[in-house]
Amino acid sequence: MRTTTLGPSKEQVPVIIQGLMRTAHMSVEELGHLLDVDLENSLSYLDTSDIYSGGRCEELLGQVFAVRPGLRNKVTLQTKCGIRMSPRGFTYYDFSEEHILKAADESLRRLNTDHIYYYLLHRPDVLFEPVEVSSAFSKLKKSGKALHFGVSNFNTTQLQYLMSVVEQPIEINQLQFSPAHTGMIDASICANRVESSSLDHDQGILNYCRMTNCAIQAWSPFRAAKSVFTGGLIDRLGQGKIETRPYLGSSEFPQLNAKLQEVSKRHDVSPAAIVIAWILRYPANMQVVLGSSRPERITDSCAGVGVRLSREEWYELYIAAGNFVP
Questions:
Q1: Rounded distance, CA 170 to CA 215, Å?
Q2: C-alpha distances out from residue 62 to 29, 113, 285, Å
Q3: How many Å apart are CA 107 and CA 105, to the nearest integer?
Q4: I want to staple 253 with a disulfide (CB 3.0 to 4.6 A). Which of 41, 82, 220, 247 is the partner?
Q5: pTM greater than the 0.85 cutoff
Q6: 148 pairs with which residues across the strands?
Q7: Largest CA-CA distance found in the chain, in angstroms, rounded
Q8: Distance CA 64, CA 52 (A)
Q9: What b/e sequence results for 232-255 when a residue is b if at least 16 CB atoms lie within 10 Å of its CB, and e otherwise?
C-alpha cells in the first residue's frame, strides 16, 4: 500500500482509510472479518466518529478489540467529535473545551483503548472559541489520550483562524471529493470567468491545505451531491436541499460510468479503482476514506493505488461527470 506523509511528525500512513460509519449493523465477528480483509490489503488506518449511530460504531470496534486485542496494535485509529444531537431533535455543533474533553473520554471508553492517534473536530462550530480548542488539545496531548489533531469540512478562513491559535499542528482536513463532487476545484478550472462554477465556496481550501502541510482526506469517493428538488447535479448557487447519492454504476450518471468503464479496461482494474486513482492523481497529499463494508469493493478500490492516470484521462473523467472545462 502506498503511503503519504502527515504533519510535522512526518508520519507515514496508508493513502486508503477504512471508514466505519456504516458498520453499526454488523456483528463483532463480521467487523473482525472486515478488518482482516483491510489488513490483507495493507489498509491499517481506521476512521470513525462518536456521532456514527450514536456511538455504536465506536462501541462495536471496541468490542472487536476486546475479543481480539492483537488487532489494536495493528491499526492507526482516528475518531471525531463535535456533532451533537439535541433531545429536541436537531443537530448542533460543540467545540467547547468541556465537550471535547468529555467526548474524548467517552470515545476512549467505547473504543476500549487508551489513546486515539488522530482526533478530529467534526464539521465547524461557528460559535467555537479557539483558545478553548487549544486548551483541550493541549490537555489531550499531554495526557496521551490523543496524539495528533485535525478537522473535518473546514474552509480556508476557519482553518487559518484555528491554526493561528492552537498550539498543536492541525494535520488533517476531511473534505468530500470525487469526480462527481468537485466544488473545491471547479473555481480554479473556471478562473476569470462568469459561470456559476467559477464561484469559490471553499476559499481555495485545497491550495491552502497544500501550503500548510495539512493532509486532505477525501470522504464519500463514490457519492455525488444531488439536489432533491431538481434531481440534477448540485446547484452551484446552493438552491434546493442537497443530499448525496451513489454514482458508481448508477443510471443517473451514464457518461461518467461509460468513461470509468473505458479507462478501467485500459488499466485492467475496476471502475472503483479508477475513482481512487482519479482522487489520488490530484497533487495535494490526499488520502481516501472508503465507506464500504464489502470486501470485494475494498480489494477493488485498493488496486487504484497502483494506477497513475494521465492528465488527459483525469480531465476526461472530470468532464464525463458533467463538469465544465472552458
A1: 9
A2: 12, 7, 30
A3: 5
A4: 247
A5: yes
A6: 118
A7: 58
A8: 17
A9: ebbebeeeeeeebeebbeeeebee
DSSP H/E element including 76: strand 76-81
The closest of 104, 115, 28 to 63, measured between CA atoms, is 28
**What is the mean pLDDT of each successive set of 10 residues along the chain, which is 326 residues long?**
77 90 95 95 95 96 96 96 92 96 98 97 93 97 97 95 94 94 84 71 87 94 65 43 77 94 98 97 91 88 95 96 87
Q: Is CATH 2.60.120.260 what the domain over 11-176 is classified as, yes or no?
A: no
130-143 vs 97-111: helix crossing angle, rounded to 10 = 40
Angle between helices 271-281 and 295-302 (to 10 degrees): 50
The answer to whether 6 and 169 are in contact (CB under 8 A) is: no
Q: How far apart are CA 71 and CA 267, in angstroms?
A: 34
* Nearest of 128, 82, 129, 122 to residue 102 by alpha carbon: 82
Distance CA 94, CA 299 (A): 37
